[in-house]
Write a structure and sequence with these properties.
Layout (H helix, E strand, L loop, with lengths): L12 E3 L5 E6 L5 E5 L4 E3 L8 H12 L5 H24 L8 H13 L13 H21 L6 E2 L4 E12 L2 E10 L16 H14 L3 H17 L3 H5 L3 H9 L5 E5 L10 E5 L2 H21 L13 H7 L2
Parallel strand pairs: 5-6
Antiparallel strand pairs: 1-4, 2-3, 6-7, 8-9
Helix pairs in contact: 1-2, 2-4, 5-6, 6-9, 8-9
Length: 323
Amino acid sequence: MKNSVMPRDEKLYHLTSDSLRLPYGIARNNEVLSVRADKIPLLCWPDGRPCTEANLYLLRCFERGLSRKEGGGTLTQYAKLISHLIRFCFNNNYSFISLTDSRFSLFIRTLQGEMDPRQPGQKKRRATHVVNIGRTCLGFLGYVGELYLEPCFIGATGTIRAETKEFKLSNRGKQIVRTYLHHHSFPNPEPQTRRLPINSANIAKLIEVIPDVSTTTFQRRRRFILIKLLEITGARRVEIANLRVEDIYNARQLKQEPVLKVFTAKRLGGREEFRFLPVSKTDLELIVNFIEKFRHRIIKKTIGVSADLGYLCSGQVILATGL
C-alpha cells in the first residue's frame, strides 16, 4: 500500500531521541561500546519512506563531528538544505544517481523561480540561499557517487559538472586554503543585506548612552568598539571577548576582501574552532585606531606590555582597573 504524500511545507526529517546510542565496537570483556547519537536528523521521502542515501550521508557527517546542538545544529541545517533535492527528485521520479548536469541545472532554476506565497511577486529565496542549497547538495551527491562506485559523478568533467574552487586566508602569518564546490547554474550573488538581532535604532540608542555611563575616555572608546564588533560580526559576547589584537592586524593585511578570524563558542568535543567573517576596511581601521591610540597606552599604564595576553578588549585591564 502506497504511503500518502506529505504536504509540501511539512519537513522531511525528524530528530533521533535524546537517549539513542550507536554501537561502534566490542570491548575485551565483550561489552558493547556505543556513542551518543541524539538529535541526528533522519530524512525521508515525501511519501514517508526513509531516504537511505541521505541518511547514510548524515551519518558520515555525524562521524566527522558536525554539530548537533540547539535542536540539531549543523546536521539539521544540512537536512533542511538536502530536503529540497529530495522533493525535486521525488516530484520528477529521479533517483539521485540518475541526475545529470542538465537535471541538476533544472533543480537550481526551480529553486530560483519559486515564488513566495506570502509575498505576491517576490521570489521565495535570495540568490545566496540558492547557492547555499546547491553547494550542500553537491557535497551530498559527491557522497552518492562514492556510494554507487561512480567516482566521476561530481567533477569538472563529471556527470554533474561541478568545479572545486578555493580561497585563501591568512592566520598568524600562515596561509589557510578553503575549498568549495561551484556549478555553472548557480546564480550570481546579490548585494548582501545584513539582518541584525537588534535593529539599527536600538544600536544607535546603545551608542548614545555610552558617554553617560562611562567615566574615562578609554572606557567610552572600549564600549563603543564592543558594540561595533557585536554589530558587524553578529558574534556572541564570549566570541568577541576572545578576539586578539593580532586577529585584527591579520584581517587588515587582506587588502581585497578582509575577513576576521573569530573563535566559535559552538565547538565540538572541546576542540578550539574558528570561523572567518567578512569585515569592512573602514571598521578595521576604526578598531586599529582604538588599539594604537587607547589600548596600547592603557596596557602600559596598568599591567605592562610584558604581561599583555593580547586580547583586544583585555579582561586583565578590566580586573585591574575597573575600566
